Amino acid sequence: MRTPLLSLLVLLVSVLSSGVLPARTLTSTDGKTIEAEVVGIAAGKVTLLMNGKQMMVPIDRFSEADKEYFREWLAENINYQFQFFVKVSDGQEKRGKAVDAFKYTGGGTGKGDTTVRTKSHAYLIEVSNLSGQKIEDLEVHYRFYINQRLNFQGNWQGGGDLRRGYRIVGGEDGGAVENRKKLSFTTGTTDMVTSQTKVGDGQYAARRNYTETAGGVWIRVMHKGKIVGEYSKWEGELQKIEPDAWPELED
Description:
Number of strands: 15
Shape: rod-shaped
Mean pLDDT: 83
């Protein structure tokens, strides 16, 4: 009576007779050999491909040398899958020094009545590993954007927007992540500023406002120098343009 493994080996040898170029010689625990290509490993089984046909075999039926090869194959052929969770982590708003208002609004024509408020801004980032195996040396790079707007309210110089733009804060974290576990960290923080300055007098009195708001976050997951996952969420003005070029940080 043939054992299931012997029947499998007979089937694989018959497929080989069709002239398929062997990818690797594999040896069973009882010393029998077959030639096949490894195309997948999961749940303790290896998927072998021969002449367009696939079959799954328990890994423990192969030699120790083949098991080591399977481990190396798995490390080089990870089925990268991630789940992202991103949450804003802001601090309480604080009043700044009135003298600093001109640093943000520009000019020096104000007569008192200036305000500056700041609020620390950061993100909690969680990246869950759903790849089916532990991943060593995973890198999570992030960029978050701060919308900037400078405008006038009132009659002086006609009012309206003077400038819109954004600035970028970035960094990275990382480490080893077990399967179905997550890498969790809080990004570096930056202060978002709201500043207002009085300009002009009489009928030309106006206010010059500088406002910073959250613009969104872009995350890149990297492994062994390759991009293996990405996530982005845009807010405000950045929803209209959705940046498509990963920004490098200035030294």
